[in-house]
Amino acid sequence: MPQGFSIPFSATGRSSLAPRPPWHFVGDFLAIEFWADPAAVAALLPPGVGPGEDPGKCALFFSDNQYVSEGGTEIAEPSVNQYMECLVAISASWEGKPAAACPFLFVDNDNSMVRGHIQGMPKQLGTVRMTRSFSLPSQAAPLDGRGGFYAATLAHRDRRLVTAGVTLTHTTEHAPNRMLGRLINVRHMASLQAGRHERPAVHELVRQSARDVARSQVWTGTATLDFGESPSHELAMLQPLRTGAGYRYTFAMTVDDLLPLRDLSLGAAHG
Amino acid sequence: MPQGFSIPFSATGRSSLAPRPPWHFVGDFLAIEFWADPAAVAALLPPGVGPGEDPGKCALFFSDNQYVSEGGTEIAEPSVNQYMECLVAISASWEGKPAAACPFLFVDNDNSMVRGHIQGMPKQLGTVRMTRSFSLPSQAAPLDGRGGFYAATLAHRDRRLVTAGVTLTHTTEHAPNRMLGRLINVRHMASLQAGRHERPAVHELVRQSARDVARSQVWTGTATLDFGESPSHELAMLQPLRTGAGYRYTFAMTVDDLLPLRDLSLGAAHG
Amino acid sequence: MPQGFSIPFSATGRSSLAPRPPWHFVGDFLAIEFWADPAAVAALLPPGVGPGEDPGKCALFFSDNQYVSEGGTEIAEPSVNQYMECLVAISASWEGKPAAACPFLFVDNDNSMVRGHIQGMPKQLGTVRMTRSFSLPSQAAPLDGRGGFYAATLAHRDRRLVTAGVTLTHTTEHAPNRMLGRLINVRHMASLQAGRHERPAVHELVRQSARDVARSQVWTGTATLDFGESPSHELAMLQPLRTGAGYRYTFAMTVDDLLPLRDLSLGAAHG
Amino acid sequence: MPQGFSIPFSATGRSSLAPRPPWHFVGDFLAIEFWADPAAVAALLPPGVGPGEDPGKCALFFSDNQYVSEGGTEIAEPSVNQYMECLVAISASWEGKPAAACPFLFVDNDNSMVRGHIQGMPKQLGTVRMTRSFSLPSQAAPLDGRGGFYAATLAHRDRRLVTAGVTLTHTTEHAPNRMLGRLINVRHMASLQAGRHERPAVHELVRQSARDVARSQVWTGTATLDFGESPSHELAMLQPLRTGAGYRYTFAMTVDDLLPLRDLSLGAAHG
């Protein structure tokens, strides 16, 4: 019988796009706070999830990442263990407490896509780029501190969806990834059987669970952020009305669990 | 409430990777019959699916495809409506009748991946290429008939997994896509909740259903086929022991249904 | 001594990006006539090349191509012998006769880039896509005739530079590739030696030479064309003020010569 | 008149693939010393360049780079200022002193290709990947010091050409980039005019010149290295007979000059 935690199954299971958890992650992040039209944010809240206290508040997280499963053998294959990511978070509330939801999320590796789908994240492919820092001074690299300028971009279907920049000014204790502290996701698998297209096989609210979380010192500063229009994507409905601070830091975590919150498949037909 | 048939959900639903069915497909195919080690084939049969009458019999299908949902607006965006595919079929039996299963399937577009997952196909990303024909004679293009040589290749994780070639000799009524006439797929969605990793949320056998199927004249001929080794994939376990005929044809179909066969989630833990 | 017609040289010469000519080409084309600001066109005419009779007249040629050198062994490797191209032609005159120049040209294969540089074409990388036709009727494919709609797109540096569409209405004898009948190119190789940056090692006007030219029947119709802005490219200076007809056809030729017209390196410093 | 240091020329010159020098570079390097068949190395020495004292000695340099021209505006566009590189150096001698030549060099950005061609480097496209380090401990990242394991891979034409790994053991003063201290390159531009295919327009030996060179501390350790076969490339003729040490360091330099050594175009026909 074919083995594996996810498709494709195989004789040994080692071909699976998502291997058996735990999944260990580390990434360099560039994050930008922004405020979008509260109505546009509300239209993207999952069923049953309420608006945040500051209902137009959002954040964009670019990251340059490595991942391994237990044992870490994936390190030998950078094509397997590296990926770039661009994640949009919108402020929300769950059971009266601050939370966040993730309407859009782009990565450049199909194994990251499939891990994300299992977590309830709507991962799709995009081309994500971020300025790097280096350990030598050079005109070709920003300072890893005050005055350093970092750019980040996202393209999807051959169009530029995000163009962002952050200029570092000082260190801070207030990183925007606190938004991700209570991240509400939607696990979903559509049904294709005739007559059941409106009744997905899986449709549930879950909360992301992470352990062994670590974060480096955080640099913050001023930011610019622009979303491009596309006939193939609605990210631009969250076009920033105001851009807040930018942040640069490194983050690590391990994932091998999630918290089920509510089965949405029993309620009204979706979509 | 966010709309859509699949992730990502959005205000209008038009950002979904898989739009609401029906899905209309057309593609130029290069197919090659081959025989692999029957034990390797048996190890890839889904739970409950029996071996074929000719138990090592397999076929590889390369295709260069376009797809649209109802209304066809995707034609305006080739980045949305085009994809290349390489599908491996193994002979099987279901309820005593000839059938096929698809252990491995590679495409180059994430929307094709997500449609495939909904159908129960284990789609992952790969780089697929095929020789084309043109309507003018040229040394740069094969004849679209006797003597024409067509190549096809698959790469995955920066390695060549398949190198194939077909030289056309005559037309035939016996196309290998009859193998796909009863294609048994496995819909699967893993569980990430601690303690439930062995109990997938969705695990079911389904049979592919297609309507409005059309096929062009089929050219056939001699074929060569070689599978490359990779630490990241087990396709090479199906290394051809013998290669049969090759085929070139165009195929069209519409998909908006599938047939549920058996819920596998109730049985023994998977994998 | 290392062998080869172009870099990289090697023991046998077979690693060269551009092999020894002749080079045989065949491609499916989608072309669109348009008119840009005559001043923008004039600013792109090579030194010594005059404006065309209709000085803002331009054309864009998308193509899906295969190429081989003599003997045709490249057909066995689609990654070598296939490429997509998007070429901009501007009307010009040379020695009092109608001619064209090519300020911008995008391809998706480095061997095509290097062949182009040897021809005096300013090839750079881009992502080029075109709708295909198929030999079966399908909602997923346009008709290969009256009413068929074909799209084409170009992306560069993660931005959409061109979005185009053509709806076929009738056949014609007037294909826009007549513009390419007298195509004036600029062969150029910069100098890096200090003090000589303004004196390129090669800077010459040449005229493209092709033999064994063939063209299929030409379908024509209405067209739409839009150029996107980019900080990394100036194509949008040729933003269409008016769009003319669109064309779809197949074209084949062989190249193993070019005609030197004028050595520009002896004149005033360039740029 | 169109402006620019390199193709494509444009109204302002800012579209040029290679902007006017100086070019400032910084990169993280993973380098591996190895010994190949001395006859294979000799067959790749440029005309007039002698063998090294240790005639089979070679080194492979993987790097993850950023570049800017004077003023540094390219930092705002990671798609412009980032590239990955894999460079093969072979030991050589010039005028009786140790030197190196670079027969093969792969990058993933066309602007890097064109800068390289101007320098006399045989840059072509490849897919280059390297393990990264991060500032937080994680199973997903190697230590940036003793015991850290770093992988690097090169793919070309959908085949794996290089699979490499380095395990760091201690710091050293002996970095392999001393091989690059006297790097002899070949500037070359082929002729396409009939009858002149054997007489390139440019064919000259040059020596690389760099200023403002800086290097970080160097970690060294044990290494593994394997070259894959390909019908499209001859790198595997340098298959390592023995692999030496591996190295990891950061390197920065500025380039705006080169030293002409010898005009090869006057001698015997090439190739």
Features:
homotetramer; 271 residues; mainly beta; seven-stranded mixed beta barrel; 3 helices; 13 strands; globular
Describe this structure in words.
The structure is a homotetramer of 271-residue chains. Chain A has 271 residues and is mostly beta strands. Helix content of chain A is 7%, strand content 49%. The first copy, chain A, contains three helices and 13 strands, in the order βαββαββαββββββββ. Chain A has helices at 38-42, 78-81, 110-119; strands at 23-35, 50-51, 57-69, 82-94, 97-107, 123-125, 127-130, 149-156, 159-172, 183-189, 202-215, 218-227, 242-263. A seven-stranded mixed barrel of chain A has the order 1-3-4-5-10-11-13. In chain A, strand 4 (82-94) and strand 5 (97-107) form a beta hairpin. The longest helix of chain A has 10 residues, at 110-119. The radius of gyration of chain A is 19 Å and the shape is globular. The model of chain A has no long low-confidence stretch (mean pLDDT 96). Chains in contact: A-B, A-C, A-D, B-C, B-D, C-D. Chains C and D meet through strand 5, helix 3, strand 6, strand 10 and strand 13 of C and strand 5, helix 3, strand 6, strand 10 and strand 13 of D.
